Amino acid sequence: MSKDRGREANDDVNGHGRKGSVRAGLVLCLAALLGCSREETSQPTAGSGTARPAALRAELEPAPEGGEIAPLVQQARERARREGRELVVYVGAPWCEPCTRFHDAVKAGQLDAVLPALRLLEFDLDRDRDRLAEAGYASEMIPLFVVPGEDGRGTPLRIEGSVKGERAVDEIVPRLAAILSRARTSAR
To answer: What is the mean pLDDT of residues 16-45?
Structure first.
């Protein structure tokens, strides 16, 4: 056996060296994943008045086809807040590839780990374009994500557009998380 091979064998046995480090890293990752998968019981926080469900999942809520958008969003925002969720107005279209990829990712639970309390009030651009514009939800590109104001109207906390292809969801999620973080910060 060569010196290098003998050193590798000793490193593996002792848990040191490159292979041991990789193994240790994998064990730590697995432990972190298992530790994060525990479900917590639903308990309201002191003074919050809202109970947070044990296992929240990001969800889509189809917007009603008629009516004024601002009051509709305002009601949805208040309901989401009572349920321990964060509401975002989401505008997409069936012909928009990044929109359909994002929609499918939410349905498949791919956002649950990063944005478990997210509720998307989903509008169709083709059907709702005019009434969205009246409520401050106009945009040049879709998908559009807007954190609504207390009055139900659109705010500057928004992102629009995305890349096409498999990277669409990976490109949208951090931007969406950033506007939600800014919304939380400004609400304090």
So the answer is: 37
